[in-house]
């Protein structure tokens, strides 16, 4: 799972914030959820602070080819080989907050079984955090 980034490409500032110029500027969130034989299911959840429900959530079978599918109110793009991304505006992530701290949780669950039960030892999980805030005045 990669660190989210404002689009066009910007860097995280010295304080660790992703800074946005406008509330309509997209935040690009890429991730990889794959299995060598494409036998897995993934779940990506983005949570703001301790707010429930999540700001964004998607659960989907991994896909071999490229394409897109809808998740929540967003279109998730797949470029193939388990590579996905979504572009979300700060407004959609922040809600009524002017800035926020987020946790991204990616879970990849293998569909392998021993004939009766699913084998969880092939599962993987990654957690990343990021903070989103308005750009500072020059």
Mean pLDDT equals 78
Number of separate domains = 1
Strand order of the largest sheet: 1-3-8-7-6
By CATH, the topology is Immunoglobulin-like
Percentage beta strand: over 45%
Reported for the largest beta sheet, the result is: 5 strands, antiparallel
Instruction: Give the oligomer, counting copies of the same chain as homo and different chains as hetero.
Output: single chain
The proportion of residues forming helix, as a percent range, comes to under 10%
CATH class: Mainly Beta
- Terminal residue distance: 32 Å
Global morphology: elongated
What is the count of helical runs?
1
| H and E string | EEEEEEEEHEE
CATH architecture: Sandwich
**Which parts are unreliable, with pLDDT below 50 for 5 consecutive residues or more?**
none
Radius of gyration, in angstroms, nearest whole number = 16 Å
Strand-helix topology:
Layout: E1 5-6, E2 17-20, E3 27-32, E4 40-48, E5 56-61, E6 66-71, E7 74-80, E8 83-88, H1 90-94, E9 100-110, E10 124-134
Parallel strand pairs: 2-10
Antiparallel strand pairs: 1-3, 3-8, 4-5, 4-9, 6-7, 7-8, 9-10
């Amino acid at each position: 799972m990669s660190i989210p980034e404002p689009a066009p490409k910007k860097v995280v500032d010295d304080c660790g914030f992703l800074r946005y110029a406008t509330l309509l500027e997209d935040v690009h969130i890429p991730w990889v959820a794959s299995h060598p034989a494409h036998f897995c299911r993934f779940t990506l959840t983005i949570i703001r602070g301790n707010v429930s429900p999540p700001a964004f959530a998607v659960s989907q079978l991994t896909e071999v080819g490229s394409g897109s599918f809808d998740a929540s109110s967003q279109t998730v793009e797949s470029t193939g080989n388990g590579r996905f991304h979504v572009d979300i505006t700060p407004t959609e992530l922040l809600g009524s907050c002017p800035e926020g701290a987020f946790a991204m949780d990616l879970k990849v669950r293998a569909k392998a079984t021993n004939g009766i039960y699913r084998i969880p030892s092939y599962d993987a999980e990654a957690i990343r955090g990021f903070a989103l805030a308005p750009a500072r005045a020059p």
